[in-house]
Task: structure prediction
Amino acid sequence: MKSDSSARTLYDASRDDLAALLAGEPAYRVEQTWKGLYESFAEPANITTLSAALRTRLTEQLPTALIPARESVSDKGDTVKFLWRLADGNHPIETVLMHYADRATVCVSTQAGCAMACGFCATGQAGFNRQLTVGEIVEQVVRAARHAKKRKQRVANIVFMGMGEPLANEPAVWGAVERLHHDIGISARHLTISTVGIVPGIRTLASRPLPVNLAVSMHAARNELRDQLVPINKRYPIDELIDACREYLRVRNRRISFEWALIAGVNDTARDATELARLTTKLRPSAHVNLIPLNPTPGFATRGTDAQGVRRFAKRLQDLGVNATVRRNRGTDIDAACGQLAAGQPVVLTARRNI
Ligand code: SAH
Result:
């Protein structure tokens, strides 16, 4: 049997690919290797249950996908941003590891760059390079988990909120979800996929067999404004998006979150709160609003709403019956916060955009 050519990298390989690679060895070697990779987060060279010759064979035939380029630390070590280069084409991507009291969360990238072109997001400003494979997504988690292990912490949550639009790369994202759930043992209920609002992708997700959490980057509750902030809204306008969310809620019967980056004078007014409340309070069983004070990015001149404005907007929503919370910002000083991942690429713009 020949090894499947789709197994480009270590964490792209399926059990069958490993079996092909380990042909002639006792069958239990596959399981030993799998456990080493997915339970111990070991590099093949360190899977000591295997002979030195087998470790070498694995290392040579299934290369790792991510080449470490830089590690930046913030929040007294609680937030770590990893910059990687993809082994094939040198494209940079980033992963963020966030330590909390008793667990850790990893924020993974799903594409090298992003084609959605949201003007306030650094990844959107930098443009699209290519899709990530299952293995490139999974390896981000494995490497972050290896790092967390040194602090005796376990990765308990994964958010697909790094670079890229997960639902523009749904098959690979779903492949990664299955690996994380079945092989690494992070339950689908602890996995959150964030989308800019790709309606067919939300519908595909609703048909998938595992109950992952859905977050929708809303930012505006009227088409005229959302068309400007989130250009894909012109293709999938708010009504269609909310219909798809309703379908997801009906199938999953869990709550959905809406993300709202607060931009001073743009989407933080009483009118915005009323429009948002009108959308979310109709959804059952429930919708939750996550307010994120806009983080600065090189290509977007308008500021984030100040702290007082954020509190005022949150209170307005709460008074209108919306379940709204403010997301604590992590890693702003190392450009690791929401919307700041651009993988060290200089964002060259002739004019800073104002909305
Ligand atoms: N493309 C997906 C996944 C990225 S998640 C999506 O858009 O949902 C990144 C989150 O950070 C999204 O909610 C995005 O809207 C938000 N974001 C982008 N730029 C931001 C910024 N400058 N400040 C705060 N949040 C931002």
Observations:
- The chain has a mean pLDDT of 93.
- The chain has two domains: 10-61, 66-334.
- The longest helix spans residues 134-150.
- The longest strand covers residues 66-74.
